[in-house]
Amino acid sequence: MSATDAAARREELVALYKEVSKCTKCPLHETRTKAVFGAGNADADLMFVGEAPGAEEDRQGLPFVGRAGQLLNELLVEIGLSREDVFICNVLKSRPPNNRDPQPTEIAACEPYLFEQVRLIEPRVVCTLGNFATKLLTGNQTGITRVRGTPQTHELGGRPVHLLPLFHPAAALRTPAVKEQLRGDFATIPALLAQALPEPMPSAAEIAAETAVEDEEPPPPADQLGFFGGPDGG
Ligand code: URA
Questions:
Q1: Which end of the chain is more exposed for a tag (fewer CB within 10 A), N or C?
Q2: Does residue 164 have its Cβ closer than 6 Å to ligand 1?
Q3: 84-113 confidence digits (pLDDT tens)
Q4: Ligand 1: does its nearest atom lie under 6 Å from the Cβ of 57?
């Protein structure tokens, strides 16, 4: 991707940030202090998607700045990365009161922002943190305990990406065994970043066009063309 393309995508991301900052698409805008758009490298190969801002994130307008964020920082350092290398955001851009679970209507209102962020940042690897991000981005309701640590391939933001479901760092803070599993899964990220991306999946229209061509009569062999009144076939 050229530098100009990256600059244009960054500009669009800034415009999206401004839109999210004044978003009133769901009632959470009435109780939030600041919307939390996300932060980090706008051209990152690696993106993390959490659930929703907590109290400290709501105050600062930045993602993962509380205890879960400190653990995320530690785990990044262990694989030779820092927050400046990655982009971090959430499914919801506004804090649910008392950190309750995101509601389906809130997710539906907010998800276009997340898909647009993925489209503009063009990550190679997207790590989903916890059930809400995993279920939304995989389009599958299987719980995080069953899918964590196994990479999947999905088309997100119009491009294929490696998607790695991970436990949420807040769950890791509560349970030491979960923390060790999260640490082990983090260790697989560098190899995933180095792995080639699959070819983009053909669209339904492309598949239909290909099938139509296959169904057509094959053209006659070149030596038969004379029978059909070609230029010098008589
Ligand atoms: N938990 C999240 O899911 N996101 C944050 O930004 C902070 C805590």
A1: C
A2: no
A3: 999 999 999 999 999 999 999 999 999 999
A4: yes
